[in-house]
Design a protein that fits this description.
Elements lengths: L1 H11 L6 H6 L2 H13 L3 H7 L10 H7 L7 H8 L2 H13 L1 H11 L3 H12 L8 E2 H11 L1 H20 L8 E2 L12 H7 L14 H14 L10 H14 L3 H23 L1
Antiparallel strand pairs: 1-2
Length: 273
């Protein structure tokens, strides 16, 4: 009996030389391995990522997906995101970052009030942007959520590719229960495709405001934001469509646009004083 216990302990604490063997026993690793290698993520980086001691399946994540905020009534949803406190905080945020917002507007043509609103809804201006590691969020979806597994596998590969290329430890990045991260709450594929190095430091950052603001603007433009369209109904519809691409929920778009309008009204009136 004592020998069996010792063998069990040894099996759960393999040496570094046995890390690939441990990873090979992980069904999530097996599902993404070949595609990740084809995309350019080295085998050693993959095995290290999938033998990390902090890998965890979070039972609460499926529960959160079962009761998303976006399925609340518009009245309930609006009370969460279009509040006096969030408007007040947004005005302060705009004043603090006005120079960057104006630079972003001059470059991309996207309303600085809209960018401020999206940041306000997504992360409450940077104060609420992390709950779980992105790795564990996606890992949980692959492991125990069959309806989301295909999407999550693609995003896990995109995330590992980002971490490898930018030399980011995969288990150091925190985000939402869905796997979005940064102040702008990009999913990994969106970050890889639309993130911008706007402060010219050589790295696309998810937590520095110039990069975050420009990346959101770049995403909106890439998804049909009407940079050169005339004002009117057509433009409003294009803005709605671009914001909807950011989060496929009508309540989300309505909240972003309502907060944008409130911020623009208050900020413009203060600038005119």
């Amino acid at each position: 009996m004592k020998q069996i216990i010792i063998l069990c302990i040894m099996a759960t604490h393999l040496s570094a030389n046995d890390s690939s063997t441990t990873a090979d026993k992980d069904p999530v690793y097996e599902q993404i391995k070949l595609t990740a290698l084809e995309k350019g993520v080295p085998d050693q980086f993959l095995t290290q990522s999938f033998t990390h001691e902090n890998i965890q399946i979070h039972d609460i994540i499926p529960e959160r997906f079962a009761k998303p905020y976006e399925e609340k009534s518009w009245t309930e949803y609006k009370k969460l995101f279009v509040t006096a406190g969030r408007i007040r905080k947004g005005v302060i945020f705009y004043k603090e970052h006005r120079e960057i917002l104006e630079k972003m507007f001059n470059h991309y043509g996207v309303s600085p009030f809209l960018i401020t609103s999206i940041i306000g809804v997504e992360s409450n201006y940077g104060s609420h942007h992390k709950e779980f590691t992105v790795f564990n969020s996606l890992y949980t979806q692959i492991a125990v959520m069959p309806k989301r597994a295909r999407w999550a596998k693609q995003e896990m590969i995109e995330f590992l590719l980002y971490c490898y290329k930018d030399n980011v430890p995969p288990h150091s990045v925190y985000g939402s229960y869905a796997g979005a991260f940064g102040y702008g709450q990009f999913i990994p594929s969106s970050f890889n495709n639309f993130a911008v190095d706007f402060d010219d430091d050589g790295v696309r950052q998810a937590y520095t405001w110039p990069d975050v603001m420009a990346s959101i603007a770049n995403y909106l433009v890439g998804n049909g934001y009407p940079v050169n369209s005339p004002a009117g109904q057509k433009k409003d519809a294009q803005v709605y469509k671009a914001v909807y691409a950011y989060n496929h929920a009508d309540n989300y778009v309505k909240a972003v646009l309502a907060l944008r309008d409130e911020l623009e009204s208050v900020i413009t009136s203060k600038l005119d004083e």
